[in-house]
Each structure stands twice: as structure tokens, then as C-alpha cells.
Specification:
It is a single chain. The protein has 495 residues and is α/β, with parallel strands linked by helices. The protein has 2 domains: 275 residues, 3-Layer(aba) Sandwich (Aldehyde Dehydrogenase, Chain A, domain 1), CATH 3.40.605.10; 192 residues, Aldehyde Dehydrogenase, Chain A, domain 2 (3-Layer(aba) Sandwich). Helix content is 37%, strand content 19%. A 7-stranded mixed beta sheet has the order 15-16-17-14-13-18-19, with helices on both faces. Helix 6 packs parallel to helix 7. The longest helix is centred in the N-terminal third of the chain and has 17 residues. The chain is globular and about 75 Å long. The termini are far apart.
Length: 495
């Protein structure tokens, strides 16, 4: 087996003050303000970053508008395709650096962040293909006389992308790729907790030949995101994050009738039937929630286990969970690192304390980790609760941390009703060897993704998104690019 090599400290960090990317140039905030980004595993300062405000958002939108009105939107599809393919090569060539920036900024183990390399390249190449597949239709209309009608597909304009902190470089690629394929331009705001890899990605975009102003990156706090959401010259918003923030973005966008797609929170059910392959289901059920320290919107945080195997399954699950290695994100053996910040840690610990007070029974974990290697960071033990009532807070609200609620069930009808008894509908899992059960569950669960005998699988060609309070719109898949296009009807009277 080849040992994983940890790359050196990224060269980006040799510049302790990181500025925004606007109009093809790195620039400080007009206010001169900066904020800190720190390593959540050690508390060490990584960089101070330009704290963009409304005035910086305005100049970024102006740069994006100027680029859109310039030659970019009229560039031949094959030229945009070539740029995306060059960008894919560059991202892959520099992915060790990008993954290390995410490890240092987010706290995710390098063994996890480096796994995004294949997906990043695949996404960019998939959308490179989409760039040459944008077509309108010729429509046989019923109008009187000799009238030709057809449609044109045109880029919608300036897009605002507001990204979460739980997968920084992956989100940067996922948001930028359809923009570049469609001929739109972009103002991206990365989360203030994890801005570094987005800035490096912006540099690589320029190196790949993306024209100045087509990709702009405004770093800042919540007020910058609010200014971007309400800016009158932004044509579309693509947001991934919490449901509460998503609701605020929808309100802000209403004034100028922006097109909006939102991928929001989740409280996803993961359902294990008695006939499941437990050797596969046990570790998968654990990592469906504990991967990335539980900081995944589609994490399988509600585990339903059929009653006849419940006790055995829970014993095996507890043993597996107790063997998960939590520690230094730079250790190749580490499986789980810290959560992203002290604020997030305190929020998660409050949920755990609330679960105790509501009567849920702890199976394992439930504490902040302390001692050598842990005291300076934000480490929480992987935590399992059993005897959780469906109405308890931890069963209803998104925790976004390494906390699993487990339930017993008896029948298909019962578990479908309970699985769907949530405001969310992003992901779900089903573990069974019975084909009829698998199909029945896949049809009955109200969620954007149903993973059968697997969890968290993604592919550039397969759509991803939510039902209900988990948002609307789909990312990936052949129809994703339609969210970045306007459809224009053209009528030509020939007689």
C-alpha cells in the first residue's frame, strides 16, 4: 500500500495578508478592514483576509457586468470549453495545495480533503462538455399564416455564488463550472471561516485563461453576503448553506426578482432493514454522519434500525464508533478532525446537553475532547444517542456536528411515515437486500437523493438537491446549466 504524503505548507500562506479578487486583480477592501482565519485544530493564525463590504460587492458586480457585456458572452462555446479543460488540468495539478488549504482552514483531515481531486476534475470536464451542448428549439406553432418560431438560449448574466464552509474547494468548483460553461459571470463569496482555497482557485482561473472580471471573489462576513443577495445588478443567486440564511436570501432577492437556487439543510434518514448486509451497513451508518465531523448537509443523522436487529446493530455501531480515530488533520491515520470553530463547537455541545435533558440515552461520546493534542482545538467525540423520541430537538433540528440519533422501527409503512416527518428532504439511505423494499422506499421517501446500500455518492452527471425546507433547484446533471440560461422566443412572419 502506498503511504499518503502530506504536502508542504501552501505557498499562499507565505503572504499573510490575503486580498480579494476583483476584475482580475487582488485588491484590499476599500474600508481597509481585515479578519482572521485560524486553524481549528490548533488555533494558529493562518492569514488575515480582506473584509469586503457593500462597496466592494458593488465594484465586484460592476466588474462582472463589464466582463459579461464584453466579449465573454459572445465567445464561441468551444473556447469556453477549452478554458474549462485547462482549468481542470490546473486544479488537478495543484490539488494537493488546495486540499491542504482546506485542511488547515476547515480542520478536515487531509486524507479526506485530498479525496476531492477526482471529483473536482470530473466536474470541470463535465461542464466543459455542457458548454457545447446549449441549444434552442424550433417549434411548429399553430399561428395563422406562414410563421417560424424558435427559441434561443442566452446566459442569464451576473451570478452571485454564496458558499458554505464545510467543503470549500469543492463548492468553489461546483459553483463556478456552470457559470463558465454558460457564458455568465460570477461574484463568489466564500464563507468567512474558510476563504483561502477559493482565493487560490480564483488565481488558477486567471491562469487558465478566464478573462478578467468573469470570476470575482469577495471575502467578507455576513454583511457582504447580504449586499450581494440584494444587489440590483445581480441576475441569479446560487446559495448553499443553512435554511435560515437561505430564507433571508430569498427575501433579499425578491426586490429585483432574481432567479435563485438554494441547497439548504437536512435531517436525513438512514434506514436499515433486518435483511441488510450489516458488515457494510454498520461502518456506512457511522460515517454517513461522522464524516467531516458531521458537517455535511445531507448527513444521515437519523438512523432507523428494524427492531429485530436493533440491539445487535447498535452494539456493533458503538464499537465501530469508539474505534474512529479523531485527531490531528495532518496525521494520515486521522479519520475525523475538529469542527470548524468555537462557535460551532458550542452550538453542537448545547444540542448534546439538550438531548440529555430531554431524556435521550447516550450510547457513546458526547464530550469535547481534551488532553494532549486536543485542548487548543475544537474536537468533539463522535456521539450516538438511542431512545430518541421523534419530537426531541436532536431528532428535528440540524445539528451540523458528529451527533447521531438512533430509532427502532417495525414496518415499511411506519418507517416511511417517520422518515418523512421532517421539514427537510435532502438525502436518505436504505439498506436492504430485497429489491421490492428498495424500490418502495426509493419511491416513498421525500428527499432529493435516495442512496440504496451506499451513502453520499455523487457524480457530475447525477442531479443533487432537496425537497421541502432543504431547498429547490438541482446541481450537477444535464439540466443544471438551464438555471444559468434565459429562454428567448423568436417569431418570424414569412408571408
Amino acid at each position: 500500500m502506498t503511504m499518503m504524503t502530506i504536502p508542504p505548507r501552501p505557498a499562499l500562506l507565505d503572504t499573510p495578508e490575503q486580498d480579494m479578487l476583483i476584475g482580475g486583480r487582488r485588491v484590499p477592501a476599500l474600508s481597509g478592514k481585515r479578519f482572521e482565519t485560524r486553524n481549528p485544530a490548533t488555533g494558529a493564525l493562518l492569514a488575515t483576509v480582506a473584509e469586503g463590504g457593500a462597496e466592494d460587492v458593488d465594484r465586484a458586480v460592476k466588474a462582472a457586468r463589464a466582463a459579461f457585456e464584453g466579449p465573454w458572452r459572445r465567445m464561441k462555446p468551444v473556447e469556453r470549453q477549452r478554458i474549462l479543460l485547462r482549468l481542470a488540468d490546473l486544479v488537478e495539478a495543484h490539488y494537493e495545495e488546495l486540499a491542504m488549504l482546506d485542511t488547515l482552514d476547515l480542520g478536515a483531515p487531509y486524507s479526506r480533503t485530498i479525496m476531492g481531486k477526482a471529483r473536482a476534475g470530473a466536474l470541470l470536464r463535465y461542464y466543459a462538455g455542457q458548454a457545447t451542448l446549449i441549444t434552442g428549439d424550433t417549434i411548429d406553432n399553430s399561428a395563422p399564416g406562414d410563421v417560424l418560431s424558435h427559441t434561443l438560449k442566452e446566459p442569464i448574466g451576473v451570478v452571485a455564488a454564496i458558499n458554505p464552509w464545510n467543503g470549500p474547494i469543492g463548492m468553489s468548483v461546483w459553483k463556478a463550472a456552470p457559470v463558465l460553461a454558460s457564458g455568465c459571470t460570477l461574484v463568489m463569496k466564500p464563507a468567512e471561516q474558510t476563504p483561502l482555497s477559493a482565493l487560490r482557485f480564483g488565481d488558477l482561473c486567471l491562469e487558465a485563461g478566464v478573462p478578467e472580471g468573469v470570476i470575482n471573489i469577495v471575502t467578507g462576513l455576513g454583511d457582504a453576503g447580504a449586499a450581494l443577495s440584494s444587489h440590483p445588478d445581480v441576475d441569479k443567486i446560487a446559495f448553499t448553506g443553512s435554511t435560515g440564511v437561505g430564507q433571508k436570501i430569498l427575501h433579499a432577492a425578491a426586490g429585483s426578482m432574481k432567479r435563485v437556487t438554494v441547497e439548504l439543510g437536512g435531517k436525513s434518514p438512514n434506514i436499515v432493514f433486518a435483511d441488510a448486509d450489516l458488515d457494510k451497513a454498520v461502518p456506512a451508518a457511522a460515517m454517513a454522519v461522522f464524516a467531516n465531523s458531521g458537517q455535511i448537509c445531507s448527513a444521515g443523522t437519523r438512523l432507523f434500525v428494524q427492531s429485530s436487529i436493533h440491539d445487535d446493530f447498535m452494539a456493533r455501531l458503538a464499537a465501530f464508533t469508539q474505534g474512529i480515530r479523531v485527531g490531528d488533520p495532518l496525521d494520515p491515520e486521522t479519520q475525523i478532525g475538529p469542527v470548524v470553530s468555537a462557535v460551532q463547537m458550542d452550538k453542537i455541545l448545547a444540542f448534546i446537553e439538550g438531548a440529555h435533558s430531554e431524556g435521550a440515552r447516550p450510547v457513546t461520546g458526547g464530550r469535547r475532547m481534551s488532553g494532549a493534542g486536543f485542548d487548543a482545538g475544537y474536537f468533539i467525540e463522535p456521539t450516538i444517542f438511542s431512545h430518541v423520541g421523534d419530537e426531541m430537538t436532536i431528532a428535528r433540528e440540524e445539528i451540523f456536528g458528529p451527533v447521531l440519533s438512533a430509532f427502532a422501527f417495525d414496518t415499511v409503512e411506519e418507517v416511511l411515515a417517520r422518515a418523512n416527518a421532517t421539514d427537510f428532504g435532502l438525502g436518505s439511505g436504505v439498506w436492504t437486500r430485497d429489491l421490492a423494499t428498495a424500490h418502495r422506499m426509493a419511491r416513498g421517501i421525500r428527499a432529493g437523493s435516495v442512496w440504496v446500500n451506499c451513502y453520499q455518492m455523487l457524480d457530475p452527471g447525477v442531479p443533487f438537491g432537496g425537497y421541502k425546507m432543504s431547498g429547490f433547484g438541482r446541481e450537477s446533471g444535464p439540466h443544471h446549466i438551464e438555471d444559468y440560461l434565459e429562454t428567448k422566443a423568436v417569431w418570424i412572419k414569412l408571408d
